[in-house]
Design a protein that fits this description.
Rossmann fold; OB fold (Dihydrolipoamide Acetyltransferase, E2P); 2 domains; five-stranded parallel sheet; five-stranded antiparallel sheet
Length: 231
């Protein structure tokens, strides 16, 4: 489920967009509404939202708020609802995931098209920030597993084409991937993508070894008590 916030200083505009979304049979739920910019960040944190419909204030543009949103929620998807499409170009200067804009006054058909685009993206993409503050845009299917290194309190994201070192905890990565139920804990130090498992090999009395597809040269562990989670 995609959790959306609608931000607009015009309450009627919020009600109009909310009504359209609620009438549609889609996987997007409105979990918050804000009329002031200083409400946005707190509302994102409180609701765990991952989609923002954001009106553009021509006096200050969108860049400062977009950057602030990315800092607390790198995977936030932003759709601008505006009568000033020229200001949307500012978003290209930030790391925000901007999937487009709804030019006011917009129709229900325009919203439907926008929501379809959001659903396609959200079901396949995720962003991970590494320890150098570089944002990696990843296809979900390319992630094999995430490993926690307790001695340096770091996470390693093992992907098909690269390995990403992050400063976050395994809980942080779990929160980013929470909408993708095929990621499960196999061990206190491993979060694995069940879709990329090739085989499971007996190891010892407490754990087995997980081998991954495409002959990936790194393995993960699964404890006997968590084996049922991935079968």
């Amino acid at each position: 489920m995609i959790r959306a916030i609608i931000g607009d200083k015009n309450i009627k505009a919020i009600e109009y967009l909310r009504t359209i979304i609620n009438e549609l049979d889609c996987n997007i739920k409105v979990v918050g509404e804000v009329t002031k910019k200083d409400q946005v960040l707190d509302t994102i944190i409180r609701t765990n939202a991952n989609l923002m419909f954001m009106d553009i204030d021509p006096e200050c543009g969108c860049l400062p708020l977009s950057k602030a949103i990315v800092e607390i929620c790198p995977n936030m998807i932003i759709i601008y609802t505006t009568v000033y499409p020229q200001f949307c170009l500012e978003a290209l200067e930030s790391n925000a995931i901007v999937l487009g804009y709804l030019l006011k006054p917009f129709s229900k058909e325009m919203v439907v098209s926008c929501l379809e685009k959001i659903s396609r993206y959200a079901n396949n993409k995720v962003i991970i920030k590494d320890k150098y503050d570089i944002y990696h845009y990843l296809n979900i299917k390319d992630i094999y597993f995430v490993e926690y290194e307790s001695h340096i309190k770091n996470c390693i994201v093992h992907c098909r084409a690269k390995i990403i070192h992050t400063t976050g905890t395994l809980l942080n990565i779990e929160a980013i991937l929470r909408d993708h139920t095929f990621f499960v804990r196999s061990h206190k130090s491993y979060l694995i993508n069940k879709l990329n498992i090739d085989r499971i090999i007996p190891y010892n009395n407490t754990s087995d070894i997980i081998k991954f597809k495409h002959n990936y040269n790194k393995d993960a562990l699964v404890t006997k008590d968590k084996l049922s989670n991935i079968l």
